[in-house]
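Example record used in the benchmark description.
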Amino acid sequence: MEKTIYIVRHCAADGQSPHADLTAEGIIQAEKLADFFAEIEVDRVISSPFVRARRTTEPIADRKRIHMEEDSRLAERTLSTYNFEDWLLKLEETFLDFHLKYEGGESSYEAMDRVCKVVDELPDSSKTVLVTHGNLMTLLLRCFDEQIGFQEWQSLTNPDVYRVQVTNDGARVERIWKEEALQ
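Model output (structure tokens):
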């Protein structure tokens, strides 16, 4: 068994709602991200249904001449339906206790469970781009490397790209996005 997954955090956006679009800068970033993937072999492109993720995915799919798929399991995790003033501390606590769940929200464990199933369902030898969001991306990466947590979430950029190579012997996680790619 071997799969290669490119996990992408969406480009710069106008907010956090599911309907938030890319900023003008984010639109330019999405084109540069498509350039980044130009020489990388890809057979599937799957996006979160959120607008900012779809708009990040479209240029990649267009250049690759691949149908862009959507999967609701790639949608960002809801921390809570309550707006915490100390949301950053609350988020950090969910990386320390994976079963911690706030009102109307999803625990880290629940979010990892749903997003890891996306990868599990990918066929052997697939080369897939998954476009998602920072919190969920970090939790997906943690499925393959237990050292990944809150600090790695804090260091993510918009956009960001990690390559995960899954084999029978385990997984190799590598950040392959360089800020210079936006220059």
